Amino acid sequence: MTLNRRTFLGSGVATGLLLHSPVVWGQGKPRVVVIGGGAGGATAARYIAKDSKGAIDVTLVEMNPIYTTCFFSNLYLGGFRDFESLQHGYSKLSDMGINVVTDMATGVDRAARTVTLAGGTVLPYDRLILSPGIDFVEGSVPGWSLADQEIMPHAYKAGPQTQLLKAQVEALPEGGTFAMIAPPNPYRCPPGPYERISMVAHVLSQKNPTAKILLVDPKEKFSKQALFEESWTKHYGTMVERIGPDFGGDKVEVRPAAMEIVVDGEVTKVDCCNVIPGQMAGQIAQLAGVTDDKGWAPVTADAMKSKVDENIFVLGDASAQGDMPKSGFSANSQAKVAAMAIRGELTGSKVFPAKYSNTCWSLLAPDDGVKVGASYEPTPEKIASVESFVSATGEDAALRKATYEESIGWYQGITADIFG
Questions:
Q1: Are strands 134-136 and 279-281 parallel, antiparallel or unpaired?
Q2: Pairing state between β 212-216 and 240-243
Q3: Separation of alpha carbons 413 and 420, rounded Å
Q4: Residue 196: what pLDDT?
Q5: Measured between alpha carbons, how far is 317 from 188 in angstroms, rounded to an integer?
Q6: Of the candidates 126, 131, 346, 377, which lies 20 to 30 Å from 163 by C-alpha distance?
Q7: What is the pTM of this model?
Q8: With 70 as the cut, is the pLDDT of residue 17 above it?
């Protein structure tokens, strides 16, 4: 199926056609607070407000007045989109009656059911949705910390970091070396680092064809590996070299001040280094006490409800839910399930069985797009994949172009679904 704005929005119809019961609440409207205004949080806030028809008071807390999507930011790096196309505001959510608060959540009192903001405001809630995305595991790349992000950017939270990395790639000296330190599993957007390699290679092949790309990877394999490796050879020749764990990719150190990387004891001078550290749930999930010893928040498969607190739901990258990747599409899909469950609990509206879906597109070169995806259903243990698909190597150019164009339609559709 070709996914465009109309068909994508149509996929949410089943969750919107609910049979509402009259609201019965002792002390005014029930209150839902949502922390995080990205694909998970903003979608949940919008669907709760829209489908409850004003019966639920919804507050969305997001520290950035303008949200920059991490998904599709690689296309900005490759010169296929401008930066402004990644940015989205919250005015349409405000117009729906959602209370949009530009502030940072700094604490959750689960016993009192309150959220404290950096500005001092305390927000009471009946249900709390956490969708804070990721934070980085300090020390996961020896020699690198957040203090070094202006020298060796991560660009894995979209915004100024993305712009900085683009500027560094374009300023690479003739014949210079771009290095990426890829993250360990699990991490946001499994194809993301490898699409980024493709986009950097595209830019360098046009502007700096003698440059080299060094991909240092601690993982034995990665999402869509055969597709990426085929395309790197086809489009970029020998420009991309991957060092996996069999050659020391899991034994890496960086030296930001000297602009050096050390792989299994061997020192290499580079001109630009993109360090993507190990990841965990955003800090507010840690502060709320809903994460496990791996740093992620376990949730129920049927509703995205925290396994620690029945009044808290965790969406998107921060959650530990099973087979779904940490992607914008996944977060949007999970948000609709959680929104429906919360409306059911707070207003008595009908709740349908949970179903989830995801697709991750990647651009390899101009008009050369590939995808991977699946449908999912809840089991007692986890969200489980029930049907999957992936692009094939050797596909013809017309199909690859159609896949890329499908991704553009999806971006238009999902951002409308998230931000209104």
A1: antiparallel
A2: parallel
A3: 10
A4: 98
A5: 6
A6: 131
A7: 0.93
A8: no
